[in-house]
Amino acid sequence: MSGSHRKQIRQFDGEGDARELTFSCRQRKAYVSKPYVVQWFFKALQKARDELPIHVWAYVVMPEHIHLLVWPIERQFKISRLLATIKLSVSKKAANHLRRNNPKKLEGTEFQFWQSGPEYDRNLENEATVWAAIDYIHRNPVRRGLCDRAIEWPWSSFAEHAGQSGPVKIDRESLPPDPRR
Questions:
Q1: Cα–Cα distance between 67 and 81 in angstroms, integer?
Q2: Please, what sign has the CA dihedral across residues 130, 131, 134, 139?
C-alpha cells in the first residue's frame, strides 16, 4: 500500500435531491483565474443548463476550483453527464489555447486541466441544507480574501440571488423556500 490515500467519494444520482458539486484544477493550480477561462466555464454551464435536465441554483468560480449547486429535474439523470459537458468543454478549450499560444508547455506531456478522480459531490435533501450551501458558495471568495463582500465577486450567482443580472441565469422559480425568511 502506498503512502498516499485518495479520498473515496461516492455519487448518488437521482431521487430528486439537489447536488452540491466542487471540482478542482489539476494540482490546485489557478487555471480558472483568467477572465477568458472563466468565460469558457460560463459558456459550458449555460450550454449544460440549456441542453440537460437541470436547474442551476448557485455557482462560484474561484481561481483553482468551482462550486456548483444544481437540481436535476429528471430522476434518472446522471450527474456525470453534467460534469462531462462542462469539464470536457473547458479542458478542450484550454488545451487548444496552449497549443496556439504556448506549445512548449504541452511538449512531452499530456495536458490535464482538471484534477483526476472523484470530485466533491453531495446530495442536499432539505431546504435548510440547500440554503446553507448557497450561502457557503457565495461567501467563498470573501473567506479567501478575494473581495470584501460577496456582491463584489463577479464570477458567482450572488448577483442573481440579489435580483440583479449575473453571468449565468439561475432557475429562481424552482428554488425551495428559504426557511430563514
A1: 17
A2: negative
Length of the chain: 181
Predicted TM-score (pTM) of this structure: 0.87
Cell numbers at 128, concatenated:
435548510
Please give the helix or strand (H or E) that residue 43 lies within, else none: helix 35-51
Q: What are the helix (H) ranges across 79-174?
A: 79-101, 127-143, 158-161
Amino acid symbol at 159: A
> What domains lie within the chain, and their CATH numbers?
18-173 (3.30.70.1290)
* First-to-last C-alpha distance (Å) of the chain: 51
**pLDDT tens digits along 134-178:** 999 999 999 999 999 999 999 999 999 999 999 999 999 999 998
> Which candidate, 175, 177, 179, places its Cα nearest to that of 71?
175
| Cell 484550454 sits on residue | 94
Round to whole Å and give the CA distance between 92 and 96.
Answer: 6
Give the span between the Cα atoms of 75 and 93, in whole angstroms.
31
Query: b/e per residue, 163-177, with b = 16+ CB within 10 A?
Result: eeebbbebeeeebee
Neighbours of 58 (CB within 10 A): 25
